[in-house]
Amino acid sequence: MLDEHYLTYRIRSVEYLGEKLLQAGVPILQPPGGHAIYLDAKRFLPHVPPEQFPGQSIVCELYRVAGIRSVEIGSLMFGKSDAATGRFIPPAMELVRLAIPRRVYTQSHIDYVVESVVEVFREREKLRGYRIVSAPPLLRHFTARFARLR
């Protein structure tokens, strides 16, 4: 991890992933991080409201289409309900984190991620939100169950 050549390669791989996604019009947070790309789910799926978990929709589709594991960091993880009114209060950001594990992915893997994310992005109008079927009172993003909305 302290090998400067490896760190240069890792950081460049993440930059490359970000550059390719941006070239395809995929909205990401900028600049790309040293370990991950964050898809902007709010801009990726503007037709899916926060209470229908747009980030989770992207996460599910990436796994379904390409076997890519990612994580929602948005309304599922940080959304709240007003105690008095029950009204949903979304967080400021709706993100999907694509973390790049150390010393695992080759250039071919990164290119596969690019192709897969771009494919999902091109078909984004077909994506729908989700509703929670069951969830624990705390840390629901770990074990909640969902149903896709039609």
What does this structure look like?
This protein is an alpha+beta fold and 150 residues long. 41% of the residues lie in helices and 17% in strands. It has a single domain, classed as Aspartate Aminotransferase, domain 1, CATH 3.90.1150. The chain has 6 helices and 7 strands, in the order αβααβαβββαβαβ. Strands 1-5-2 form a 3-stranded antiparallel β-sheet. Helix 1 packs parallel to helix 5 and helix 3 crosses helix 5. The protein is globular, with a radius of gyration of 16 Å. The termini are far apart. The mean pLDDT is 93.
Main sheet overview: 3 strands, antiparallel
End-to-end separation: 45 Å
Strand arrangement, largest sheet? 1-5-2
In terms of DSSP E residues, the strand content is: 15-25%
Tally the beta strands.
Answer: 7
Low-confidence stretches: none
- Which structural class do the helices and strands define? alpha+beta
Output mean pLDDT.
Answer: 93
CATH architect. name: Alpha-Beta Complex
Features:
three-stranded antiparallel sheet; single chain; Aspartate Aminotransferase, domain 1; two-stranded antiparallel sheet; alpha+beta; 150 residues
Secondary structure layout plus pairing:
Elements: H1 4-23, E1 36-40, H2 41-44, H3 54-66, E2 71-73, H4 75-78, E3 80-81, E4 88-89, E5 95-99, H5 107-122, E6 130-134, H6 140-143, E7 145-148
Helix pairs in contact: 1-5, 3-5
